[in-house]
Amino acid sequence: MDEHNWLVERFEIERPQLQAIAYRMLGSLPEAEDAVQESWLHLIRADRSSIKNPGAWLTRTVSRICLDMLRTRKVRSEQPLEASAPEFITTEAGGIDPEEEAELADSIGLALLVVLDRLSPAERLAFVLHDLFAIPFDEIALMLERSETATRQLASRARRRVRGEPTASDVDFIRSREVVSAFLAASREGSFDALLSVLDPDVMIRTDSVAVSRGAAKEISGAQAVARAFKRLLERTQFAQLVLVDGAVGIVIADPVDPRGWFLFLLRLTIRDGKIITIDMVADPARLHQLRLTVLPD
Predict the structure, then answer these.
(1) Residue 39 CB contacts under 8 Å (≥ 6 apart), including other chains
(2) Which residue pairs, CB below 8 angstroms and at least 24 apart, start in 218-222?
(3) Cellular component per GO (predicted)?
(4) What is the DSSP-derived secondary structure letter of residue 116?
(5) What is the CATH number of the domain that holds 270?
């Protein structure tokens, strides 16, 4: 077997693990696939004489790629890089016992969607690699270019966020999700009164030019008018799904007949005091392509 075929075979063996790491790091399947593909490009360009363990090398490489993507995402969102990560003055023996690990594994599905998206890139990498994939802290420290003690502390704080009391932002997220879920359920059921109960009296729908070209009104204001509009919309499409949109809860409305599963609209909702105050309807493919969407269970 020539070297190229051996590399391809070895990479395919490692691909499921790389995909799992990248997905848990990034929370987006398309981005995870991009990261894995980039790790392959790094591999074929690398000096392979220095690679003693291809599996470990690829894990480090895809992790660094994901870390760079997370940091780029933070900068693009105009959030201070690792602003919530102050220096630690205490040390931790490190690790959690097997029973605690089992409890953490049981809860990680929701945590990945709700909590991990709110961690700094370094916290997320330390937590995912160590607690979910059992990669030693000394290896993770090299990826982060930090001391092993600091890396343990990053994972510890992320672990507390996952298992401990929710922060104010986590509580806001949960409440917003409840409101959006109630809105979607009422729209599906055609319950006018239930729709009105989650809409602010002065709620407004704003649509982009592509949505207008597809027949949507440019602007609709008032709870009753908005409720009627969404009752009609869900009666026509019958396919809508909660999604995580750049850390906030939204709704995707798609065409169930189209085999490509194209979106009709993405709804970005603004919520205040338990009521929806604005709904932005996005249909422009260029804007949709820039957004990071993760499907949420109803």
Answers:
(1) 18, 58, 61, 62, 65
(2) none
(3) DNA-directed RNA polymerase complex
(4) G
(5) 3.10.450.50
